[in-house]
Amino acid sequence: MSIKNIDSFTHTRGESVYLDDIPVVNGTLYACAYGSPFAHGKILALNLDEALSMEGVVRIFTCKDIPGKNQIGGIIPDEPLLADSAVHYIGMPVALVVAVSAELAAAAVKKITLEIDKLHVITDPREAQQHGNLIVPPRTFRLGGSNSAFDNCEHVFEGTADTNGQEHLYIETQGAYALPVENGSIRVISSTQGPTAVQKHTAEVLGIPMHRVEVDTTRLGGGFGGKEDQATSWAALCALACWILKKPVKYSLHRMEDMRMTGKRHPYSSDFRIGLDKDLRILSYEVSFYQNAGAAADLSPAVLERTLFHSTNSYHIPNVTATAYSCRTNLPPNTAFRGFGGPQGMFVIEAAIAKAAESLGVPASAIQHKNLIKSGDEFPYGQLAESEAHACWKKAKSLYDTDKICDEIRQFNSSNRFLKKGLSFMPICFGISFTKILMNQARALVHVYLDGSVNISTGAVEMGQGVNTKMLQVAAQVFSISPQQIKVNSTNTYRIANTSPSAASATADLNGKAVLDACEKIRERLILSAAEILGCLPEAVSLKDGQVLINGSPSSLTWNGLVNASYLKRVNLSEHGHYATPGIHFNSEKEKGHPFAYHVYGTAITVVTVDCIRGTYEFDAVKLVHDFGTSMNPLIDKGQIEGGLVQGIGWMTMEEIIYDNEGKLRSNALSTYKVPDIYSVPKELDIHFLETAKDNLAIFRSKAVGEPPLMYGIGAYFALRNAIKAFNPNSDMAFSAPMTPEKVLMGLYAHKTGNR
Ligand code: LUZ
Ligand code: MOS
User: Which of 164, 335, 652, 733 has the fewest CB atoms below 10 angstroms from its CB?
Assistant: First the structure.
């Protein structure tokens, strides 16, 4: 059964409710944060008087007003909600103005000034590492013994590969609305992927127990990881003001504030060394990752870990040493972003393979294909693969006839002087589960009302990915009733406790399995009840399309009739389901274990045409084969592939975040930060579902689809590189993403000799 996204109707009519659509209560005040104008320094003075004297300003809060802990660090307590003695990045919240309107609050913020004793500003992760400014000690994943293995290699290549950050650019900016509730409680409406994180930190900041903080989230206008951890500060700030003023307080960030004050995808700079034998088998790989964490830990240590997990992408390499440094710099704390460090790690191995291929004069695909991971091969972290890498590659090669495409490209390139095409293969492999084992749990609350209608609550946050539709599908399938009879609620910490954030591509799996658990328990009770009513054995009873069947034939009972009759018999029609992913474990001392429930595989073929006079380019086609397991909703899953792919292409080709040496964001608006639009979408986009009937731990065997497709975008970078090489074989471009048209142009004419 597949249904349309249940939000599509209200989205189309503009009726879906986001934070800014919630009717505000009379007397609501508006907050605006004053962010540090300096990237690093000791605070000498904070001048609030002029702002305080402005019309409509109610109060200005600083760290001194916080009744509980001035701390919102998720993994490490290194991040104050409001700066106390020092500032560590431009935009770091120092004070919170509360006024009668959002405009007056913003105007008052402009009158605040800060005096500091300036300290050295670091924006480069390698410089931070040299100064010993690390968020956590470095970590190393090892397989085999890579140092000695290099001695046996026929070919050894080394190099550097850099990827830039990425602005989340969720359509709905960060924001929250806090309302006072009786008996020292508070209700916080938050645009967050992690309602429990908001609840926990709000409680700590206010110095009250979590049970007094209700966090409610209807849906987000996009998250992409940016609201996994970083929705917390805005919610906690509103809560602080609300708590002290006993008035509702709302804060919805301006786009430029959001871009300036929040963290992004982590930029990485990395060194690699790759060794191959004469048959192009990769024997050895060594890599050092320098992660630009920004000024506080946020999720950086977890992101760093996922970089290590994905450092060999979908390849089996017998000898690996991968080391990662989380480097503290004076930028806004970087955070989760679709892929969570995985894409950064995968870019480096692809760069290493490209380097080897270019040096040896073979296509990269020859090396990629030779080294694809097989079932039973060991990942550097000890888990054995159940691989679909070869299946995806093989299918892509035959389905799309890549040999023919390559021939056509060769012909095109030899008959065109100033237009060149390039092709790349991009295999992906992404591990599904939070790498922190304890986070792999979820709960769901299912009520069947006496009229037969069903109401579901889970810890899943709907952010456009269609998770609510999938939750509804689970209940509809177990009860075998029409989707119209089921309603999915907002995500609320009073209904569902201790939620993991909606992240790691695992939301549908974890929460869906909790819904499954709850629904199956209710169904079991209803079947016993039906057997009693109908005077037959429970084994003979089943539910089908709103009917109760006996031995497969309709009985006199409908679903609604059964529910109502069971209610009259005092059968429990509610259940709280729980799920914890079985079989996963990880030992972080040995850096070995079985951290992932399963992996998702795929292969994308990207073809690009470069205008070799202008440096501009267009993607002719992306054709891919993706391992869906057995998709429970092909329409939604296809949408995730399309969105993820284009977001990945944006990261790899045009989205360029620029901070100057003072730590000031120069790409601070959509006029200076280019994101993909409809014209950047490949002209042809072919998605083939590799459906496998194999058992797996996904909900209804429908593999997680949120993050993996982003990494197909890496193929865009290497297709461009190949097109440039077709024009100028001497080009020796650095491996540095994004490949903007400016860089393409430079690459086209770098060391160019002759006049082809
Ligand atoms: N968030 C997280 C994630 O806390 N842990 C993870 O492993 C993860 N992976 C992907 C995206 N978000
Ligand atoms: Mo995410 S990067 O799964 O919030």
Answer: 733
Q: What does the block give as tokens for 432?
A: 């599904």
- What pLDDT is recorded for position 632? 97
720 lines ligand 2 (CB under 6 A): no
pLDDT per position as a tens digit, 140-156: 999 998 678 999 999 99
- The answer on pLDDT for 394 being more than 80 is yes
What residue type is assigned to position 658 of the chain? I
Average confidence (pLDDT) over 25-54:
98
SS3 139: strand
Amino acid of residue 546? G
| Neighbouring C-beta atoms of residue 84, cutoff 10 Å | 14
Number of residues assigned to the chain: 756
Question: 197 in ligand 2 pocket by Cβ < 6 Å?
Answer: no
Q: What would the two tokens of residue 466 be? A: 């269609």
CB 34 less than 6 A from any atom of ligand 1: no
Among 265, 298, 306, which is best to mutate for testing ligand 1, by the most ligand atoms less than 8 A from CB? 306
Q: Which residue has the tokens 């014209």?
A: 679
Q: Strand 268-276 relative to strand 574-580: parallel, antiparallel, unpaired?
A: unpaired
Please count the CA atoms within 13 angstroms of the CA of 154 that sit on its side-chain side.
10
- Among candidates 122, 40, 50, 128, which has minimal Cα distance to 85? 40
Smallest CA separation from ligand 1 atom 10, residue: 504
Q: Which two tokens stand for residue 77?
A: 């307590």
Structure tokens at 194: 């992690």
CA distance 19 to 188: 11
Distance CA 749, CA 731 (A): 7
User: Ligand 2: distance of its center to the CA of 605 in Å?
Assistant: 25
Q: Quick: pLDDT tens for 499-523.
A: 999 999 999 999 999 999 999 999 9
Q: Calculate what percentage of the chain has a pLDDT beyond 70.
A: 99
How many CA atoms are closer than 13 Å to the CA of 149, on its beta-carbon side? 21
388 is catalytic: no
User: Which parts of 387-452 fold into alpha helices (H)?
Assistant: 389-399, 402-415
Q: Which atom of ligand 2 is nearest to the CA of 707?
A: 3
What does the pLDDT read at residue 9? 95
What is the distance between the alpha carbons of residues 410 and 248, in angstroms, rounded to a whole number?
65
Q: For ligand 1, is residue 435 a contact (CB within 6 Å)?
A: yes
Is 644 strand, coil or helix?
A: helix
Looking from the CA of 73 toward its CB, the CA atoms found within 13 Å total 15
Answer left, alpha or beta for residue 160, where phi above 0 means left and psi between -120 and 50 means alpha: beta
How far apart CA 53 and CA 678 sit, in angstroms, is 48
What integer is the mean pLDDT of 671-683?
Answer: 96
Contact indicator for 278, 356 with CB cutoff of 8 Å = no
Cα 271 from chain centroid?
25
Q: Maximum distance among all alpha carbons in the chain?
A: 91
Q: Which amino acid is at 354?
A: A
Q: How is residue 747 written in tokens? A: 């690459």
Dist. CA 339 → ligand 2 center (Å):
7
From the CA of 706, the nearest ligand is: 2
The answer, yes or no, to whether any atom of ligand 2 lies below 6 A from the CB of 503, is: yes
Report the separation in Å between the CA atom of 688 and the middle of ligand 1, taken as the mean of its atom positions: 27
Confidence of residue 754 (pLDDT cuts 50, 70, 90): low
Other CB atoms within 10 A of residue 258 CB = 22
Overall average pLDDT of the 467-486 stretch: 98
- Cα-only R_g, the chain: 27
pLDDT digits (tens, 9 = 90+) for 624-637: 999 999 999 999 99
**pLDDT surpasses 60 at 756:** no
Q: For residue 156, which phi and psi values (nearest 5 degrees)?
A: -130, 130
Closest CA to 526 of 515, 514, 510, 542: 542
pLDDT for 691 = 82
**Total-model pTM:** 0.97
Give the whole-angstrom CA distance, residue 140 versus residue 66: 39
Name 60's bridge partners.
97
Of 204, 286, 656, 707, the active-site residue reads 707
